[in-house]
Specification:
By secondary structure, the chain is of the alpha/beta class. 31% of the residues lie in helices and 23% in strands.
């Protein structure tokens, strides 16, 4: 059925204006004034901003880690995402050394099948580079539509790849049109520091942060950026948590290296003291990179405002406090890394960013949707409000006041990372390809309606002029 959205204010990465939106067959068919409502469901957006659906470029749903599996799968995770205004996620597909890449992709397709309520894509982990992997990559990029490759520089003896693997991955990505992503921490140094801490009887959650100091993130970020420059490839640094790493990215970009940076809401509003909470409560805030000293927060906000960081991911990776996080009692290295962030990603950026004057409305849309769409081969199908784009649309009340809590979130996990935080702004209704997933704050979607999206190669959907302009921002 056709839908007509009226009386709202449309906000894209470039514009803010009032107009009506006509939706037909899942896409936006017209934008203008006095559009015909014949045979259309009329949606009154009075008092609301109309945003393009959010794109979360960094999630871990139904992911094994540390002897357990994330609490939120593709059903509960995407439901939470939808309530927060996100209509597309890109999840990380883990691979196993010695096994075909396509086997891993098949496993992730099975995880999502019949569960996702919004659209999704995959990034693919590269843990080793050999002839078998190199021979598979062209088909993965061209035909599977998986056009981003992740290399871990941390988690020694688990996920960590060596520099030769990262270097060769960058060369292959340059050849085939993929974007290389890195978890940038010096895993060798972290391994030494954690072993030393445990030998000294330092086992509480706070030592997760103290054994992963910001210098190891800054060093790894700078090293990855230099390798990107050396290979003339493209790099995306995930979950930047500190000023040191943000400055390494800015420095590389000033030199003309094609490097992009993502941060996450948790690093903008939470700090290292949360890991010091008594009665093992600090374990709720154990993720990597860890939370930093509070002064880093304003440095990250400044980097978002001036364009040195370009996207906001959630790094959604939830584990129950009771029954999962407590696996690490007596040994902080056994606390499953990750937190429940996906539902509150856009809310926190709007409330703490737009409402407090740190970023503009247009920057909010760019950070939460448009730039990720461009970087990851989804634009203009997704990431904007334009004729011909998917009708992924959020009606957002900018003045709604509420308190974030595990009692009111829609995830399966038993705690909220932002418990008790007062925020302003809320998604009222959310449409995915023209169909309501959330309507008047009620879930009306259906598991399995989310589609896997094959993505274009890096830079394929943007002109060389646009790409150059983005890089120089």
């Amino acid at each position: 059925m056709k839908k007509l959205i009226k009386n709202g204010t449309i906000v894209t990465a470039a514009d803010v204006y009032e107009a009506e939106i006509l939706i037909e067959d899942g896409v936006i068919s017209a934008i203008g004034h006095d559009l015909s409502s014949q045979n259309a469901e009329v949606i009154d957006a009075n008092g609301c901003y109309i945003f393009p659906g959010g794109i979360d470029p960094h999630t871990h749903l139904d992911m094994p880690f540390g002897g357990t599996v994330t609490k939120d799968d593709f059903e509960t995770g995407t439901m939470g995402a939808a309530f927060g205004g996100t209509t597309t996620i890109i999840d990380f597909c883990l691979t196993t050394k010695g096994e075909p890449l396509k086997k891993a992709l098949s496993e992730w397709h099975e995880k999502a099948k019949g569960k996702a309520v919004i659209d999704y894509g995959f990034h693919l982990m590269i843990g080793e580079i050999n002839e078998e992997v190199l021979n598979e990559l062209p088909d993965v990029v061209e035909n599977e539509g998986v056009t981003s490759l992740k290399v871990f520089m941390a988690y020694k003896n688990v996920f960590q790849a060596d520099d030769a693997t990262l270097y060769r991955t960058m060369l292959a990505a340059k050849e085939h049109g993929a974007l290389v992503m890195v978890h940038a921490e010096n895993g060798d140094v972290i391994d030494y520091l954690t072993t030393k801490a445990l030998e000294e009887g330092k086992t509480d959650p706070i030592y997760h942060a103290l054994t992963r100091p910001p210098e190891v993130e800054g060093e790894a970020t700078g090293r990855a950026a230099r390798l990107a420059g050396l290979t003339d490839s493209q790099l995306y640094v995930v979950h930047v948590s500190c000023a040191d790493a943000a400055e390494r990215i800015a420095e590389a970009r000033r030199k003309g290296i094609d490097v992009w940076g993502e941060t996450c809401p948790q690093y903008l509003v939470l700090d290292q003291t949360y890991l010091e909470k008594p009665d093992f409560e600090g374990a709720k805030y154990v993720w990597s990179p860890p939370l930093r000293d509070k002064w880093n927060q304003e440095e990250l906000w400044t980097a978002l405002k001036n364009g040195n960081l370009q996207t906001i991911g959630s790094d959604q990776c939830s584990f129950d406090f009771h029954g999962q996080k407590d696996l690490g009692k007596g040994d902080f290295t056994k606390i499953p890394n990750g937190g429940p962030i996906i539902e509150d990603r856009m809310t926190i950026l709007f409330s703490e960013g737009v409402k407090k004057g740190r970023i503009s409305l247009n920057q909010f849309v760019d950070l939460t949707s448009t730039r990720a769409a461009k970087l990851f081969g989804l634009f203009p199908q997704k990431g904007t409000i334009a004729v011909g784009s998917d009708a992924d649309i959020v009606l957002y009340d900018p003045n709604a006041e509420r308190t974030l809590s595990a009692q009111t979130h829609h995830l399966a996990v038993d705690y909220s990372a932002f418990e008790g935080m007062k925020v302003t702004g809320e998604a009222v209704s959310v449409l995915s390809r023209g169909e309501f997933v959330v309507k008047d704050k009620q879930f009306v979607g259906k598991p399995g309606t989310g589609r896997f999206i094959k993505r274009a190669k890096y830079g394929q959907l943007t002109s060389s002029k646009d790409a150059a302009k983005q890089t120089s921002n």
